[in-house]
């Protein structure tokens, strides 16, 4: 029996769909204006912060914010963090994480929509693209058209400006790790270290590719945060929502259907919300991982509603709790009511996925053409949910704790290491000498004089290596600014005055300028009696 040749054909399975270019349309509105304001603010902070000067005296950098990897220090205004104080960085990271949790709990993916570097640079690249190639329809036409001189010129100019922005982004980023004015001069004159050019090249490539070509794919496929945020939302979190309880049944012929006595919703199916979306989704399909909560679809829909003489907010920031309550108020209750609607001409569009049936007459007053006042909208009380209060309390507690620790921070520190071999040396006069390696940390950008003395070892004699065996009861030392002073110290003592083989005592170092002190406990070793 002959086999059907179609049975031998293997079905082609496509596991990955090639990216389709998205050309979001320009839109005007409150959220678009706020995005421009926030974009300029964040970019301004990023670009100009390394150039802000802060006088710390002649012995330290005057850059307001500097991550000095070479000298293992972090400068922020008057704050100077050393490697052993990395817990401050840990605290800042905890505050950033909890703050992000708080924002997500209250405003959904507001970080993704407004502050994420991927969003900020993509927005800027789209603006450049729009200025050169035109708005959505012009770009679609240019994309599909033949490779004419005009198309080549516009694409080349666009890529050139993208490349310049990307190079500047890399240069600005590395200026946080070196003196910005000197680094800029070295980069221009090709005198900068090779690692600087390598870092700029890497950041140029990533910015150019991620913001210019990958765009929403970074959010959907590469970034884990959308999935984490999705798990953090609850019924009191504000998210961009299509209020289908007032939008359905949607139609493009609202006036004609209303004149015929048909019941229709507010959505006129114009697809304006889809045209402006930077990720190319239809918000009317419900919550999707691609949605970055930027609110541009709200602006587009509000503009349409305004032209139609209807209330704004068909697409709005709302909570699942309010949406569910409003949906219940706008839905058919009895089976007879559902059957009556399903028998109407346009009823197939107002049956939702959860098998609810929207009743337009329950949404809008037919006499005044206004929405009924029974529907609920978000208010300030949602910010006071237990989870939000908990997040804010943790965030505030960590911040206050860091401020307290910072205010009590001692800029003077000391580490002591007793000689291990030999533990002691017996001198010809019968006294015992112990050796110590001491490191005194002066964590201020000014030179300081300090006094080193002992407590718990009375009448001990101190001497320094290479100091002609001169004996002291206490030492006056000069500390260089922002450095560690190594001291090789000998302590000599009469063993007859000690009862124990090992006697603990304290070394104390004091600033002579302001009498701030630091101390450390160590021991003096003698032979067993």
What can you see in these coordinates?
The protein has 529 residues and is of the alpha+beta class. The chain folds into three domains: 30-231, no CATH class; 234-378, no CATH class; 412-525, Immunoglobulin-like. It is 40% helix and 16% strand. The chain contains 17 helices and 14 strands. It is elongated. The chain starts with 29 loop residues before the first helix and ends with a strand.
Write the SSE topology.
Blueprint (H helix, E strand, L loop, with lengths): L29 H19 L16 E4 L4 E4 L2 E3 L5 H21 L2 H6 L1 H17 L2 H9 L4 H26 L5 H9 L5 H21 L1 H7 L2 H8 L6 E4 L1 H4 L6 H6 L12 H5 L19 H13 L6 E4 L1 H11 L4 H8 L43 H22 L4 E7 L6 E2 L5 E11 L5 E8 L5 E4 L10 E5 L3 E11 L8 E10 L5 E9 L4
Antiparallel strand pairs: 1-2, 2-3, 4-5, 6-8, 7-8, 8-12, 9-11, 9-13, 10-12, 13-14
Comma- or semicolon-separated keywords:
Immunoglobulin-like, four-stranded antiparallel β-sheet, alpha+beta, 529 residues
What's this, in brief?
The chain is α+β, with helices and mostly antiparallel strands.
- Which spans have pLDDT < 50 for at least 5 consecutive residues? 5-9, 345-351
Number of domains: 3
The class by helix and strand makeup works out as alpha+beta
Shape: elongated
User: Roughly how many Å apart are the termini?
Assistant: 108 Å
Share of helical residues: 40-55%
Radius of gyration: 35 Å
Q: Which percent band covers the strand fraction?
A: 15-25%
What is the average of the pLDDT values?
88
Number of strands: 14
Query: Total helix count?
Result: 17
Tell me about the largest β-sheet: 5 strands, antiparallel
